[in-house]
Amino acid sequence: MRELLSWHRFDALLRGQLDAADRLRFPLTWLAWQVLSAAVFGASLGVYAVTSRDLPDPRYLLAGSVKVPLLLLFTSGITIPSLYVFGALAGLRFGARELAAQLMVAHTVLAAVLASLAPVLAFFALTTSSYSFMVLLDVLACATAGFFGVRVFLRALGEPDPRLAEAVPAVDEPLRVAESLPGAEAGALPVVDAGAAVKPLARRAVAPPAKPRSPRELLRSWLALYAFVGVQAGWILRPFIGRPELEFVIFRPKEGGFFGAVWYHFWRMLTGE
């Protein structure tokens, strides 16, 4: 268990000290930290249900600590197939397993940011009675964490492939081979324009393949789908905070929508209703 929840690996991941191979080598470690961090944030959402009611309801603490990890895992499972297809069409070098691992790493960073903001949400839950404020604060925390997760994912997609660099010969390799032939130093070889002789070969050797589309171009289309899936998954799994006037339920019935609810709570904050 200590090896699975290795703090050294987790800290190195957050500091950007791991290369691509290291990030792909420890998927269970990232999964464990992702679940733990998301559970901490989910529990912080339930603090409001404990402090805002005449009769505290700690069930929201447990429900949130289960729902937030499920939200991340559920969103990953739904969007990985589309990510693989979009990546293949864009010419990315990653396979399905590598893309899944990179998304797992990004979700681990996202969950770590959420966990770091958990004390902030718990503090405001203890000091405010405004449900609308808590909802908007939760949305802001998730948006902030999503920004950092996307940045890590984008950086991973843009990393050069070391295998490709090793496979392509250097431009001056034919010239070094010619200079190493017997008699080259003694002048036994005929004097020719070495540059003119090797440049056509070098151009053929290092001619790059058709340039794939940038990972950023992939994210413009796929991240929109990812965001909508995550938002809808969160809406399905609500409530996380718990309205003070409503009884505890695991899931609320299908009604309304996420963006309408955010606007509603934002309007209540502006008007003081």
Topology:
Layout: H1 7-14, H2 20-25, H3 27-45, H4 47-51, H5 59-89, H6 96-127, H7 131-157, H8 162-167, H9 173-179, H10 194-206, H11 215-237, H12 258-271
Helix pairs in contact: 3-5, 3-6, 5-6, 5-11, 6-7, 7-12
Order of helices and strands: HHHHHHHHHHHH
Secondary-structure class: mainly alpha
C-alpha geometry: globular
Number of strands: 0
Low-confidence stretches: 162-175
Mean pLDDT reading: 81
End-to-end distance, in Å?
Answer: 49 Å
Over the alpha carbons, how many angstroms does the gyration radius reach?
27 Å
Tally of helical runs: 12
Largest pleated sheet: none
Based on the structure, what is the oligomeric state of the protein chains? Answer: single chain
Bin the helical content. 55-70%
Query: Beta fraction of the residues?
Result: under 5%
* Total count of domains: 2
